[in-house]
Structure formats: structure tokens, C-alpha cells
Amino acid sequence: MNAPLSTAALMSGQDFRESLRRYRPTVYVDGRKVDSVADERAFQPGINAIALTYDHALKAQYAPIMTAVQRTSGKQVNRFSHINTSSGDLLNKLEAVRLVCQETGCAQRYLTHDALNAIAQVSARIDDAHGTREHTARFTEYLHRVQDQDLTLGVAMTDAKGDRSKRPHEQANADSYVHIVERNALNNGVRGIVISGTKAIVTGAPYVHELLVMPCRNMGQEDADFAVCCAVPLDAPGLTIVARPAGRPGEKLEHGEALFSRKYGQSTAVCIFDRVFVPWDRVFYAGEWEHSSHLTYSYATHHRHSCIGARAGFGDLLIGAGALMCEANGFDPGRETHLREQMVELITITESFFACGVAASVYAKADEHCDVFMPEPVFSNIGKLLLATRIYDMHRIAHYVSGGLIVALPGPDEDHNPATAARLADVLRANPDVPYEQRIETARFIEDLTAGYQGGWYSTISLHGGGSPAAMKQEIYRNYPVGSKVELVERILERGISGDGSPAAAPHDPKRPITRNRQPGKCCDTGCTTPGQPVMVDLPLPHGDAGRSR
């Protein structure tokens, strides 16, 4: 008989809210200091989104993908704090992200997963370079604490950067990048480092438990002080968080209170570190500048893979709302060619970049320094590039199938005005089987997702989140095996063939740019799902039927 599975202390959404009250961070929003993050109205949509990732992990129907068994501890943990060790792990993570984001738009907590996996990789790489196990042991101890306490971590990666034409050590203001200002400092009998500087665009910063400080670029030897990776509690002395509201809670807009973003949203923040002390047991590396590019690259690949699942969830919202709007307007998209074409395009966009995420999972490989599985970078970057550039097409299609009603509606106060309500309900009804209230509610829902503040936010964060399209294009070309395609054509053209008709034995010229990247092909088990390896777990449909969760 198998021994019972040990489970970490998984929190509920309410437990998460209560846990935030144990912290006393210095947070500002809308020009004022926040007394209690957990009770701050401006942050409730963001807190709601992360709380859902806790509640879903406790639901029996979602547990197969929302939890996983951590190999290093044998414990069942939340999927978003799990370290991937198979293609199946990546497939289930992708599905978990889509599941929570089709409810919330953006559940944010998957950044915890992306950073932990990247730090696990760089810790092993540093240990191999030094011939030690110190960094991996330190990280593993921290990882188990995060999993046992079911924490949510923010990623403080993007520095303020200052003059973009200059490297970190060349900046007139050193605090435009987070850097080490003191090594082996002593604080209450504990040794550690002291850091200062500024991180910008930190997702969910006001309402996480800790921040993972990570470099945002490749560092040179002169930038060694800027090469630092560590974990900082949200209420660490010297840390100040200047945040923007999450969503639009309680704000009465032109067309009434936002139907979606009053409930779910995301805050981002600027995090200012002013001589923040970090004990050594929370420092994953300090000064190892030669490993910064590996950490940045690993995190970007994991995160772009996760973003694919997140925006597929957002696509699910638009597909459902678009179909509802067609019905409310009196149309069946299956019969109306122009509407069907638009809906199929929306479906194709969404499932195309999600398919790239699936391919990136299937062709994933274990890191050469550890057993962490890395999504295949070409498919990860293509999927992220597609969603980044086609988010605008997704909005356009939603607008097309909905009609101009989504921004031309009278405000909702007119629904309660005895002088106008009855007449509006009569003349603005379309499909006789769909009540006026339902048609108008769907229109305002689409407005909130695509034509209001939240829609603009989704467009911008999709374009720039996880790196700019230029960065993704660079990674696609850098990793794509163009050389294999060149050799294919040269073989057909009989270029590189010796005088006796046999293939030339000359080695490949490493100086030849177009043949630098080569691969044998994707036709074997190397990097693919090996026999017996777990793959995506089937979830029940809402009515209990077997099948995928879409």
C-alpha cells in the first residue's frame, strides 16, 4: 500500500487575505499611505485574483492541475510554487494558468513559479562552476519554506534603468539599478548584504508576501555590484512601494461601475530599496555577474511560456462574450458568414499561441545543470510574440461582433430613471429571447475588457510584459536552427558535395553566421515526452463530463 501523500499547508483565499495582515509594508497609492493592504479598496481586485489561485487548489476538480508533488520534499504543493521536472509539469502549469486567468483575466501568481524555476537553474549553474552545492542547498531550503507556508512572491526584476544608453555601473545615479552597497554586513547578530536602488513595474507588489530581486539584463565585470538575486519580505525596513490601483474598484465611470475590473485587476508598483538588509540565507547570489544573463534568459523563457496560458484565458473571456453579444443582437454566428469568420479568427488567434505553449512544453528539455525542465525557447517566444502583437486584433474582433453599442450606451443610471428606463428597455432590445438587461450587461462587460481602462492595460501589458517584441524576435532568431534549413537546401542543390559525389567532409565554418544554429531535428524522445511521462491532466467539464477545461 502506498504511503499517504504529505501536503504542504495550502491556504484558502481567505487565509491569504489574513496572511497579508501579518505584514506592515510601507505602501503608497493615489498619493496616500496605506494603513492595511488587505483592507485597501484600491487593491481588492488584485487580491481577489490571487486569492482565486488558493481557492482553486483546494477544489477537488481542479487539484490535479492546481497542485503538484515537489520532488525534493515529496509534498503536494500549489502548482505556482512548484519546480518543473517534466514536460507534463509544464503542460499542467500552462493549463493551470489558463484556468485561473479565464476567471480573473490575470491571476499574477504564476510569476512566483517562473522566478523560482529560474533561480533553481542559476543556483545549480553557479554550484557547477564553483564545484559546490551551497547555492542549490540555500535555494532549496528557501523553496521548501515558500511551499510549506504557501507564499506568493512578487518579481522585482525590471530596474528603473536611468539612461538606457549606459550600463549599470555607468549611470549618474547608481540607484537607477538595484545594487549591493555593503557586503557581509551585520544586523542584529546576523550577517548579510545591504542593497539600494529602484525596481519598476513590479506586478502585484503591494499584496504579495515577499519580493524576489533579480537582475534584468546581462552584466559585465564592472557591473558586479548590480548582479544580485535575493528574497526580501514586503515589510523589510528601507523598502518603499509606490503602487497604482488594481482594476477600477468603486470608481463610477462614464458607463457605470466596471463590471469586470471592479472585481479583478492588477496593481503594479515602483519599489524603492534604501539600504535594505538581506541575510545570507535569502541571498541566492551576490556579485556573480557572469551568471546574470543565464538567470534573465531562464526567467524570460519561463515567464513568456506562462503568459501564453494567461492570455489564452483572456481570449476565452472574449470568445464567450463575443458569442453572447452576437446572440443578444439577434444573430447566430454559425449562420452569419461575416460574424462566423470573425469568431473563427478570434478562436484561431487564441488557440494558435496556446498551441505554441503546448509545443514548448512537449519539446522542453531538462537544464544541463539540474533537473528543472525549461520550455523550448523558440515556441515560447513565438507564442508570446503572437499574443503581444495580436492582442489588438482580439480587441478589434470583439468590437466588430459587438457593434458600436459597447461604447454608445447611456449610463446605467438611466436604467433606474423612471423617465427613461422603460423606453430604453423597449428600443434597445434586439433578440426577443434575450432580456434588455442581459444585452446591456454583456455590452458593458466587453467595454470594460476592451474599450476602457482595463482594455488599454491588457493591450500594453501584453505587448511589453515579459519583454518587448524586439527581445522575443531576437530570441527566436538566436535559438532557431536556421543552419539546419540552410544545409537542407544546400544538400538539394548539391552544394558542399565533393568531386566523387559524396558529401563533403569539411567541418562547418563557425564563422559562417547563417549556419551557426543547427539541430538534428525533433523526431526523437530527446526533449520530448518520454514513454510513461505524465502529461496534461483531464479536468471535468462544468457538468461533470470528462474532457479538457476550456
Task: Describe the structure using short key phrases.
15% strand, 550 residues, 15 helices, globular, 42% helix
Structure description:
- The protein has helices spanning 13-20, 44-57, 63-66, 87-104, 110-130, 134-149, 292-328, 337-362, 377-402, 405-408, 421-427, 436-451, 453-464, 469-479, 482-492; strands spanning 6-7, 26-29, 32-33, 67-69, 75-78, 153-156, 179-187, 190-203, 210-213, 228-233, 239-243, 268-279, 283-286, 365-366, 373-374, 539-540, 546-547.
- It is α+β, with helices and mostly antiparallel strands and 550 residues long.
- The strands form 5 sheets. The chain has a 6-stranded mixed β-sheet with strand order 3-2-11-12-8-7, with no helix packed on it. Strands 6-9-10-13 form a 4-stranded mixed β-sheet.
- It is globular and about 75 Å long.
- The chain starts with 5 loop residues before the first strand and ends with a strand.
Short summary:
This protein has helices spanning 13-20, 44-57, 63-66, 87-104, 110-130, 134-149, 292-328, 337-362, 377-402, 405-408, 421-427, 436-451, 453-464, 469-479, 482-492, and strands at residues 6-7, 26-29, 32-33, 67-69, 75-78, 153-156, 179-187, 190-203, 210-213, 228-233, 239-243, 268-279, 283-286, 365-366, 373-374, 539-540, 546-547. The chain is α+β, with helices and mostly antiparallel strands and 550 residues long.
